[in-house]
Predict the structure.
Amino acid sequence: MKNLLLIDGFAMMFRSYYAVRFAPQHEGKNINAVYGCATTIMQALEQFTPEKVLVAFDSPEKTFRHELDPNYKAQRTAAPDEFIAQIDLVKELIEAFNIPLFINPGFEADDIIGTLATQAKDYKSYILSGDLDFLQLVNDRITLARFNGKSPELFDAAATEAKLGIPPSQVIDYKALCGDSSDNYKGLPGMGPIGATKLLKDFYSLEGIYQNLEQLPLKQKEKFEAHREEVFHCQHLATIKQDVPLDFTPKTIPEYQFEPDSLEYFFRKVGFNRLLQRMQNLNHNSEQETKKEQNIDSEKTNDDQQLNLF
Protein backbone atom coordinates (compact mmCIF):
# COMPACT_ATOMS: atom_id res chain seq x y z
CA MET A 1 0.00 0.00 0.00
CA LYS A 2 1.45 3.34 -1.06
CA ASN A 3 1.58 6.42 1.16
CA LEU A 4 -0.52 9.58 0.99
CA LEU A 5 0.82 12.56 2.96
CA LEU A 6 -1.72 15.19 4.01
CA ILE A 7 -0.25 18.31 5.63
CA ASP A 8 -2.15 20.74 7.86
CA GLY A 9 -0.76 24.00 6.48
CA PHE A 10 -1.45 26.50 9.25
CA ALA A 11 -0.58 23.98 11.97
CA MET A 12 2.79 23.51 10.26
CA MET A 13 3.25 27.28 10.00
CA PHE A 14 2.38 28.02 13.64
CA ARG A 15 4.60 25.24 14.89
CA SER A 16 7.46 26.53 12.73
CA TYR A 17 6.94 30.15 13.75
CA TYR A 18 7.23 29.38 17.45
CA ALA A 19 9.79 26.55 17.21
CA VAL A 20 12.44 28.15 14.97
CA ARG A 21 14.19 30.46 17.38
CA PHE A 22 16.82 31.99 15.14
CA ALA A 23 15.56 34.58 12.69
CA PRO A 24 16.53 34.08 9.03
CA GLN A 25 15.92 37.27 7.07
CA HIS A 26 14.68 37.98 3.57
CA GLU A 27 14.37 41.54 2.33
CA GLY A 28 14.76 42.72 5.91
CA LYS A 29 11.92 40.59 7.26
CA ASN A 30 11.90 37.56 9.54
CA ILE A 31 11.07 34.33 7.68
CA ASN A 32 11.56 31.76 10.45
CA ALA A 33 8.16 30.12 9.75
CA VAL A 34 9.17 29.66 6.11
CA TYR A 35 12.42 28.01 7.19
CA GLY A 36 10.64 25.74 9.64
CA CYS A 37 8.09 24.69 7.01
CA ALA A 38 10.91 23.90 4.57
CA THR A 39 12.66 21.59 7.03
CA THR A 40 9.35 20.02 8.11
CA ILE A 41 8.35 19.18 4.54
CA MET A 42 11.77 17.77 3.70
CA GLN A 43 11.76 15.60 6.80
CA ALA A 44 8.26 14.32 6.01
CA LEU A 45 9.16 13.51 2.40
CA GLU A 46 12.24 11.63 3.59
CA GLN A 47 10.38 9.72 6.29
CA PHE A 48 7.15 8.79 4.50
CA THR A 49 8.28 8.67 0.82
CA PRO A 50 4.71 9.44 -0.27
CA GLU A 51 3.32 8.68 -3.70
CA LYS A 52 1.01 11.68 -3.30
CA VAL A 53 1.15 14.84 -1.16
CA LEU A 54 -1.26 17.69 -0.50
CA VAL A 55 -1.22 20.71 1.82
CA ALA A 56 -4.57 22.03 3.09
CA PHE A 57 -5.08 25.48 4.61
CA ASP A 58 -8.01 26.85 6.57
CA SER A 59 -10.37 29.08 4.64
CA PRO A 60 -10.01 32.79 5.57
CA GLU A 61 -13.81 33.04 5.56
CA LYS A 62 -15.92 31.89 8.48
CA THR A 63 -16.73 28.19 8.35
CA PHE A 64 -19.92 26.21 8.92
CA ARG A 65 -18.85 25.83 12.58
CA HIS A 66 -18.98 29.59 13.04
CA GLU A 67 -22.52 29.48 11.65
CA LEU A 68 -23.39 26.77 14.18
CA ASP A 69 -21.78 28.70 17.03
CA PRO A 70 -20.72 32.38 16.78
CA ASN A 71 -18.42 31.82 19.78
CA TYR A 72 -16.43 29.11 18.01
CA LYS A 73 -12.73 30.05 18.39
CA ALA A 74 -13.88 33.57 19.33
CA GLN A 75 -11.38 33.79 22.20
CA ARG A 76 -8.35 33.41 19.95
CA THR A 77 -6.20 36.47 19.45
CA ALA A 78 -5.12 37.50 15.97
CA ALA A 79 -1.91 35.97 14.66
CA PRO A 80 1.15 38.24 14.92
CA ASP A 81 1.76 40.53 11.95
CA GLU A 82 5.18 38.91 11.55
CA PHE A 83 3.45 35.54 11.11
CA ILE A 84 0.84 36.81 8.64
CA ALA A 85 3.56 38.46 6.55
CA GLN A 86 5.08 35.00 5.90
CA ILE A 87 1.94 33.25 4.60
CA ASP A 88 2.43 34.12 0.93
CA LEU A 89 6.08 33.07 1.05
CA VAL A 90 5.14 29.74 2.67
CA LYS A 91 2.66 29.15 -0.15
CA GLU A 92 5.43 29.98 -2.63
CA LEU A 93 7.65 27.44 -0.83
CA ILE A 94 4.97 24.76 -1.15
CA GLU A 95 4.69 25.52 -4.86
CA ALA A 96 8.50 25.23 -5.17
CA PHE A 97 8.21 21.75 -3.61
CA ASN A 98 5.71 20.95 -6.39
CA ILE A 99 3.03 20.13 -3.81
CA PRO A 100 -0.61 21.02 -4.50
CA LEU A 101 -2.18 23.40 -1.98
CA PHE A 102 -5.94 23.45 -1.39
CA ILE A 103 -8.38 25.75 0.41
CA ASN A 104 -12.13 25.20 0.43
CA PRO A 105 -14.30 28.18 1.47
CA GLY A 106 -16.46 27.42 4.50
CA PHE A 107 -14.34 24.52 5.73
CA GLU A 108 -11.24 24.05 7.83
CA ALA A 109 -8.15 22.19 6.73
CA ASP A 110 -9.20 19.42 9.17
CA ASP A 111 -12.32 18.75 7.10
CA ILE A 112 -10.47 18.67 3.77
CA ILE A 113 -7.88 16.29 5.22
CA GLY A 114 -10.55 14.17 6.93
CA THR A 115 -12.44 13.79 3.65
CA LEU A 116 -9.35 12.84 1.63
CA ALA A 117 -7.96 10.44 4.24
CA THR A 118 -11.32 8.68 4.48
CA GLN A 119 -11.68 8.42 0.71
CA ALA A 120 -8.13 7.12 0.19
CA LYS A 121 -8.93 3.46 0.80
CA ASP A 122 -6.04 2.28 -1.39
CA TYR A 123 -3.45 4.34 0.51
CA LYS A 124 -1.79 4.49 3.87
CA SER A 125 -2.53 8.08 4.89
CA TYR A 126 -0.25 10.10 7.15
CA ILE A 127 -1.75 13.33 8.53
CA LEU A 128 1.02 15.75 9.45
CA SER A 129 -0.30 18.12 12.13
CA GLY A 130 -0.03 19.07 15.77
CA ASP A 131 -3.80 18.84 16.22
CA LEU A 132 -4.97 15.89 18.33
CA ASP A 133 -8.49 16.33 16.91
CA PHE A 134 -7.25 14.13 14.06
CA LEU A 135 -7.07 11.16 16.44
CA GLN A 136 -10.78 10.60 15.75
CA LEU A 137 -9.83 9.56 12.19
CA VAL A 138 -7.13 7.07 13.12
CA ASN A 139 -7.57 3.49 11.94
CA ASP A 140 -5.48 0.81 10.25
CA ARG A 141 -5.05 3.07 7.17
CA ILE A 142 -4.82 6.51 8.82
CA THR A 143 -2.03 7.63 11.15
CA LEU A 144 -1.54 11.01 12.79
CA ALA A 145 2.07 12.19 12.48
CA ARG A 146 2.19 14.82 15.21
CA PHE A 147 4.92 17.47 15.21
CA ASN A 148 7.46 16.51 17.85
CA GLY A 149 10.96 17.89 17.54
CA LYS A 150 13.01 16.45 14.70
CA SER A 151 10.71 13.51 13.95
CA PRO A 152 6.88 13.34 14.10
CA GLU A 153 5.26 11.26 16.85
CA LEU A 154 3.12 8.60 15.17
CA PHE A 155 -0.34 7.84 16.52
CA ASP A 156 -2.03 4.65 15.43
CA ALA A 157 -5.00 3.19 17.32
CA ALA A 158 -2.81 1.74 20.09
CA ALA A 159 -0.91 5.00 20.60
CA THR A 160 -4.19 6.92 20.65
CA GLU A 161 -5.55 4.71 23.42
CA ALA A 162 -2.29 5.00 25.34
CA LYS A 163 -2.49 8.81 25.07
CA LEU A 164 -6.16 9.34 25.93
CA GLY A 165 -7.29 6.09 27.52
CA ILE A 166 -9.90 5.58 24.79
CA PRO A 167 -9.87 4.28 21.19
CA PRO A 168 -10.15 6.65 18.20
CA SER A 169 -13.87 5.83 17.80
CA GLN A 170 -14.58 7.59 21.12
CA VAL A 171 -12.48 10.73 20.60
CA ILE A 172 -15.40 12.85 19.35
CA ASP A 173 -17.56 12.03 22.37
CA TYR A 174 -14.58 12.52 24.68
CA LYS A 175 -14.18 16.07 23.32
CA ALA A 176 -17.92 16.67 23.55
CA LEU A 177 -17.82 15.78 27.25
CA CYS A 178 -14.58 17.56 28.16
CA GLY A 179 -14.88 20.51 25.79
CA ASP A 180 -11.99 22.17 23.99
CA SER A 181 -10.71 25.48 25.32
CA SER A 182 -8.69 26.15 22.16
CA ASP A 183 -11.88 25.99 20.07
CA ASN A 184 -13.96 27.69 22.77
CA TYR A 185 -16.61 25.09 23.55
CA LYS A 186 -17.05 23.89 27.11
CA GLY A 187 -18.55 20.40 27.04
CA LEU A 188 -20.38 19.22 30.16
CA PRO A 189 -19.69 21.58 33.09
CA GLY A 190 -17.32 20.02 35.60
CA MET A 191 -16.41 17.08 33.38
CA GLY A 192 -12.71 16.28 33.10
CA PRO A 193 -10.67 13.66 31.22
CA ILE A 194 -10.82 11.02 33.98
CA GLY A 195 -14.60 11.24 34.33
CA ALA A 196 -15.15 11.28 30.57
CA THR A 197 -12.92 8.25 30.06
CA LYS A 198 -14.73 6.28 32.75
CA LEU A 199 -18.16 7.07 31.32
CA LEU A 200 -17.09 6.08 27.82
CA LYS A 201 -15.60 2.83 29.08
CA ASP A 202 -18.88 2.06 30.85
CA PHE A 203 -21.35 3.21 28.18
CA TYR A 204 -19.26 3.35 24.96
CA SER A 205 -20.71 6.59 23.53
CA LEU A 206 -22.52 9.83 24.31
CA GLU A 207 -25.75 8.26 23.13
CA GLY A 208 -25.06 5.25 25.38
CA ILE A 209 -24.64 7.54 28.38
CA TYR A 210 -27.98 9.21 27.75
CA GLN A 211 -29.66 5.83 27.34
CA ASN A 212 -28.41 4.85 30.79
CA LEU A 213 -28.85 8.02 32.83
CA GLU A 214 -30.62 6.06 35.58
CA GLN A 215 -27.33 4.33 36.32
CA LEU A 216 -25.56 7.61 37.09
CA PRO A 217 -25.38 9.33 40.47
CA LEU A 218 -28.34 11.70 40.88
CA LYS A 219 -26.36 14.96 40.62
CA GLN A 220 -24.48 13.77 37.53
CA LYS A 221 -27.74 12.56 35.96
CA GLU A 222 -29.34 15.95 36.54
CA LYS A 223 -26.34 17.72 35.01
CA PHE A 224 -26.54 15.56 31.88
CA GLU A 225 -30.26 16.26 31.61
CA ALA A 226 -29.81 20.00 32.04
CA HIS A 227 -27.03 20.26 29.44
CA ARG A 228 -28.13 17.71 26.85
CA GLU A 229 -28.47 20.24 24.02
CA GLU A 230 -25.07 21.83 24.73
CA VAL A 231 -23.27 18.48 24.91
CA PHE A 232 -24.61 17.28 21.57
CA HIS A 233 -23.82 20.70 20.12
CA CYS A 234 -20.21 20.19 21.24
CA GLN A 235 -20.25 16.74 19.65
CA HIS A 236 -21.21 18.36 16.35
CA LEU A 237 -18.46 20.98 16.62
CA ALA A 238 -15.86 18.34 17.47
CA THR A 239 -16.64 16.14 14.47
CA ILE A 240 -14.24 16.41 11.53
CA LYS A 241 -16.28 16.24 8.35
CA GLN A 242 -15.54 13.39 5.97
CA ASP A 243 -17.81 14.49 3.13
CA VAL A 244 -16.56 17.92 2.09
CA PRO A 245 -17.53 18.58 -1.56
CA LEU A 246 -14.25 18.54 -3.49
CA ASP A 247 -13.60 18.71 -7.22
CA PHE A 248 -10.90 16.05 -6.91
CA THR A 249 -10.29 12.74 -5.13
CA PRO A 250 -7.16 11.04 -3.79
CA LYS A 251 -6.97 9.14 -7.08
CA THR A 252 -6.85 12.34 -9.13
CA ILE A 253 -4.17 14.03 -7.03
CA PRO A 254 -1.07 13.83 -9.25
CA GLU A 255 1.73 11.52 -8.21
CA TYR A 256 4.40 13.47 -6.41
CA GLN A 257 7.45 14.46 -8.44
CA PHE A 258 10.24 16.24 -6.60
CA GLU A 259 11.41 19.33 -8.56
CA PRO A 260 14.94 20.22 -7.40
CA ASP A 261 15.37 23.16 -9.78
CA SER A 262 12.38 25.13 -8.51
CA LEU A 263 13.26 24.41 -4.89
CA GLU A 264 16.91 25.33 -5.38
CA TYR A 265 15.83 28.61 -6.97
CA PHE A 266 13.57 29.37 -4.00
CA PHE A 267 16.21 28.43 -1.41
CA ARG A 268 18.83 30.63 -3.08
CA LYS A 269 16.36 33.51 -3.41
CA VAL A 270 15.56 33.55 0.32
CA GLY A 271 19.07 32.61 1.47
CA PHE A 272 18.42 29.09 2.80
CA ASN A 273 21.89 27.99 1.71
CA ARG A 274 22.30 25.49 4.54
CA LEU A 275 19.28 23.57 3.19
CA LEU A 276 20.74 23.11 -0.30
CA GLN A 277 22.78 20.03 0.65
CA ARG A 278 19.81 18.43 2.35
CA MET A 279 17.75 19.19 -0.76
CA GLN A 280 20.32 17.40 -2.90
CA ASN A 281 20.11 14.35 -0.62
CA LEU A 282 16.33 14.43 -0.94
CA ASN A 283 16.64 14.63 -4.73
CA HIS A 284 19.02 11.65 -4.72
CA ASN A 285 16.60 9.62 -2.62
CA SER A 286 13.75 10.59 -4.95
CA GLU A 287 15.74 9.47 -7.99
CA GLN A 288 16.58 6.17 -6.28
CA GLU A 289 12.91 5.60 -5.47
CA THR A 290 11.95 6.32 -9.09
CA LYS A 291 14.54 3.84 -10.38
CA LYS A 292 13.28 1.23 -7.93
CA GLU A 293 9.70 1.68 -9.17
CA GLN A 294 10.86 1.53 -12.79
CA ASN A 295 12.67 -1.74 -12.08
CA ILE A 296 9.57 -3.17 -10.43
CA ASP A 297 7.44 -2.12 -13.41
CA SER A 298 9.99 -3.63 -15.76
CA GLU A 299 9.96 -6.92 -13.85
CA LYS A 300 6.17 -6.96 -13.94
CA THR A 301 6.23 -6.36 -17.72
CA ASN A 302 8.70 -9.22 -18.21
CA ASP A 303 6.58 -11.51 -16.06
CA ASP A 304 3.47 -10.57 -18.03
CA GLN A 305 5.27 -11.24 -21.31
CA GLN A 306 6.40 -14.66 -20.07
CA LEU A 307 2.88 -15.51 -18.93
CA ASN A 308 1.56 -14.51 -22.36
CA LEU A 309 3.79 -17.15 -23.91
CA PHE A 310 1.61 -19.78 -22.27
